[in-house]
Amino acid sequence: MATRKKAKYPRVHAKHGAWYWIEPRAGKWIRLCAIDEGETKLVDRLSEERKKQERPEGSGDMRPLIDIYVRTHAHQHREKAWPKYGEYAGNGFRNVDVKNVRPAHVSHWLKVKYAEKLPMQRVMRAFLSGFFQWCVETNRISVNPCREVKLKKPKPNATYITDAHFAAIRSAMDSYTAERADGKLIERRIGKGALMQCFVDLCYLTVQRSTEIRMLKWSQVDRQAGVIHFLPSKTEDSSGIAVDFAISPEIAAVLDRIKELNGGVQYIGDSPVFRTVDTRGRAKPYEATSIRSAWRRACVRAKLTDEGYTIKMIRAKALTDAAKAGYDIKALQEAAAHSTPAMTEDYIKRRDVPVSGVRLHVPTAKMA
């Protein structure tokens, strides 16, 4: 068996004609340079990447406490980015003792660090609130400073994917027309493109978040009961709202298509519905970056990049279309697993501009 070429530096290996450094925290392979670029370039790039991993020194006790909090509570949070929030907060408050933190400190940090990023302000406030509540419960402080932090609510995104654009992007996920050197037009297929079409179809037909579809397991697909069992990851740690979504003929057709794309094999149990395999041949869900990349490339092929469509907007389109079809807010709220009708309203895009029938006359002296 051939051995992998290794540099004389720790965690540096050769692959596909380039040197890669295996980042120690997540094990990610980071490209440094081409092998033929020489050792000087390799050393410079290695030093550059290592510096990115170093944490700035801190003089307070808040960052070490955040490290403990993340380490002991990570198993309670399904969100992959949750530990990263601890890094952001730890760096921001590294010179602070937790007992000295006041609401004004938290508010200032959020509004400066995440200026013009209102959703991220709320995400980090939620993380810090959980951390400070843990500090209260462990007798390190007496009051949670985040309770007094008020933030501006972000405006709902008003972008709506039109039917024509949705169809164009969906089509471009599987194939596109290319021009050969002789000027002849040919159709080219995209590897796994048909599976990505099934992905966007399920996102739309079930009105669920793309994360829930990406992480969907065959054990959640209950053909006997005629439903798909969803426990949205976003509500699991808060409201805990779940939804059993009926398997309509359209959804059943998509599930059958996925089975067909898998060579007719019906996977069961915890096998992901949208599965790929790692280097050891083990099944795992597609990474979020892979799904986003497939969507972005399809937008490029469909010449719709200027529209700014994201895969998360499929859910808003689905809820908007369902409202247009006559479903009331209560039905849509249940389908989307929202805790309040207002959350559902935020997703619905108002496509119909009302026409006012008010008619006035310009006042004249005779009318006085």
From TrEMBL:
Query: Where does the signal sequence lie?
Result: none
Q: Domain Tyr recombinase spans what residues?
A: 156-360
Q: Which PROSITE patterns match?
A: TYR_RECOMBINASE
An individual GO BP term: DNA recombination
Gene Ontology MF terms: DNA binding
Keywords on record: DNA integration, DNA recombination, DNA-binding
Which InterPro entries does UniProt cross-reference here?
DNA_brk_join_enz, Integrase-like_cat_sf, Integrase_catalytic, Integrase_recombinase_N, Phage_Integrase
Similarity-based family: Belongs to the 'phage' integrase family.
The protein, known as = Integrase
Q: Which organism is it from?
A: Pararobbsia silviterrae
